[in-house]
Amino acid sequence: MDKKYKKAENVITINVKGMHCASCVSRVEDALTEVEGVTNASVNLATHQAVVRVDPSKVEHDSMLKAVEGAGYSAHVADHSDHEGMDHMHHGEVEVMKFRAIFALVIAVLVMLFTMDIMAFPPISSIPKPVRNWIGFILTTVSMIWAGREFYVIAWKSLLKGYAEMNTLVAVGTGAAFVYSTIAILSPATFGATPETVLVYFDSAAMIIGLILLGRYFEGLAKHMAGDSVRALMELAPKTAFKLVEGVESEVPVSELMPGDTVRVKPGGQIAADGVVIDGASTIDESLLTGVSVPVDKTPDDQVRAGTINTTGTFDFKVEQAGAETVFGQIIEATRNAQALKPQIARTVDKVARIFVPVVIGISILTAIAWSLIPAPVGMENANIPFVTFISVLVIACPCALGLATPTAILVASGVGARNGILIKDGQSLEVAGWLGAIVLDKTGTITEGRPSVTKVIPFGEFTEDDVIRYAASVEQFSEHPAAIAVMKEAARRDLKWRDAEDFQAEVGVGVRAKVGGSWVRIGSETMLEQEDIELDDDLSARADLMATEAKTPLFVTRGNFIVGLIAMEDQIKEGAEAAITRLNSLGLKPVLCTGDQEKVARSVAAAVGIKNVKSEIGPQDKAGIITRLKREGKNGTFVAMVGDGINDAVALTEADVGMAMGTGSDVALMAGDFILVHGDLKSAATAIELSRATMGTIHSNLFLAFIYNVIAIPLAAGVLITSMGIMLNPMIAAAAMSLSSISVVINSLKLNGFRSSL
């Protein structure tokens, strides 16, 4: 899996209009990837969007739009800031489709009444047959020019570009019926008939247009429903905010907020941006982002996030990130982008779709030739079997179902994932997550809360507890490690003043040190003592061992060559971690705990949650190496996931087949992850795997429906039952069946909305 593009490229989303099948998707992707500076293009038929990864120094928007338009489609860069406008536009397109479908079907019924003798009831039956045929010609022409115009325009553009797609099949099928019928009424003798006896197929052309438009309307309606989860997420976004300018309060749209603005939040109001409280206090419901239902108290200097709810007091905060840059905005953007990203199975289907339409056209021509050479069965001598089977094969073949099989499932799954606090950044990873055999877990921030606290201080020799904390704080003031934060909090709690220090140094998995008053002061593990040749007292060593067996991390504090004391750090195991490990085991995965912490501490934590495989006292590069070795296990290798939250997990997240980054972790880890577990809950990792398996199951069933439909439908349309049973498929029935095949795939994908995590 190539993850390099994640590091230094921009992502552009383009709305594409005019795509109707998997062949269209392939054409648009080919056109975009040929643009210099475009490194990857993924097009989604369900959302009609292309997610394009580009080198911004080499490509401009106009060149990409021209490439898409050159392929025969209209395009514009998506403006995700106007979610309501975009949704209204899509809804409007579906409504237009419905109106055209109704218009075309009304016309089709009228054409059938005028041109089919069996339906020519009085007073229509009293009209001479030639006149009725001409009325059918006029009505069908109106339907083709207005309601079905798009079929022919796109098909013509495709022909000029040298390729064929779904619209080509419809255009050729209905066009052949129309041209044949027009020649028949102009020159019936050409077909050995009179104006009163000549057969016309205006009814087939008109009804095919109506039924396919009706199918596309229902398909569009179903696809709109598939995006309900994402729309529901966007509707949670705040719309307005109370901005303060020189103490004057005014209500403004959220889109106008900028970093540095001051915003007032009143009781019951939504927080409109990410920022820090500067005045007042309140209690915030952050369940939308954290999944935790218990409200959190906020006072000055505390962070607040967009989308969360203020429950009680009034407070002012300074905006740090607004709009798409907020955590909530990034959740929406990541979810939308995920809908256009493809798993490998979709790319395989795209390759099939490239040749599907040309093959179908070839089959239809061969069918017509074959029936021209085969004598008509008894009772069907007057049926134009070659022509009817030619049209039926063209109309019944459905690359739409193939094209929708994967994107509709991804569309629904991404919304379901967001609803469960899981952001899917990579379609291929969604596929691979269902094949995982092992999952590597970081300890701090993944299995444990990542917020250690000082639980015990043991001074040594003549030093006091305050001396131990003061020396430790003097060094840890330069570090952002969770243990350092715990030491500084303990120093503040004891109201201790730490000393100035210099030459701060850190060694991963060992400890930190700095010069305090001319002497080296160190804080770290027993390994640090060994490296510095500092002798460890047996009693202190025993106490450290006891701490480790109780899942507490012992940190030694030294000054020069002397031990100052011992600090016990305890990081609480996350609620639900044990249940998550149990579920991962039941899913057939091998959990492996990888941590830089001491072995006894690591094994104690692992035992508490049910992990048997432990790798301790390892650095970031070692984690990546462990993942590489796990991949080689088994006859055909093993797919490996990594779950982590820190900067030191970024390399391992990238090395893994699937990287799952805790949403509470560092920005570097979030960028490296393929999944973001927004709630920072290990249970979400199990849920992500369950969702992957459910999604891939849906995709496989969709593809089965699409393939089995074409395998059965095309031979039926070609007339396999004519000789044995005297049954010939009417082109109108073929058109209805084609529409139903696409709708069935979308409806099957909608079942994913019923997904529920087992945890």
Provide a descriptive summary of the structure in words.
With 759 residues, this protein is of the alpha+beta class. The protein folds into five domains: 5-78, 2-Layer Sandwich (Alpha-Beta Plaits); 234-321, Calcium-transporting ATPase, cytoplasmic transduction domain A; 333-420 and 692-759, no CATH class; 427-448 and 573-673, 3-Layer(aba) Sandwich (Rossmann fold), CATH 3.40.50; 453-570, Calcium-transporting ATPase, cytoplasmic domain N (3-Layer(aba) Sandwich), CATH 3.40.1110.10. It is built from 27 helices and 26 strands. Strands 14-26-25-24-15-22-23 form a seven-stranded mixed β-sheet, sandwiched between helices. A six-stranded antiparallel β-sheet has the order 6-5-7-13-8-11, with no helix packed on it. The chain has a six-stranded antiparallel β-sheet with strand order 16-21-20-19-18-17. The longest helix has 36 residues, at 683-718.
What topology does this entry show?
Blueprint: H1 5-8, E1 10-17, H2 22-33, E2 38-44, E3 49-54, H3 61-70, E4 74-77, H4 83-115, H5 129-147, H6 149-161, H7 166-186, H8 202-226, H9 228-235, E5 240-245, E6 248-253, E7 262-265, E8 274-280, E9 282-285, H10 287-290, E10 296-298, E11 303-304, E12 309-310, E13 315-321, H11 327-338, H12 344-373, H13 385-396, H14 399-419, E14 422-424, H15 427-432, E15 436-442, E16 453-459, H16 465-476, H17 482-493, E17 502-507, E18 511-516, E19 519-524, H18 526-531, H19 538-549, E20 552-559, E21 562-570, H20 577-586, E22 590-594, H21 599-609, E23 613-615, H22 620-631, E24 639-644, H23 650-655, E25 658-662, H24 667-672, E26 675-677, H25 683-718, H26 722-725, H27 731-750
Parallel strand pairs: 15-22, 15-24, 22-23, 24-25, 25-26
Antiparallel strand pairs: 1-3, 1-4, 2-3, 5-6, 5-7, 7-13, 8-11, 8-13, 9-10, 9-12, 14-26, 16-21, 17-18, 18-19, 19-20, 20-21
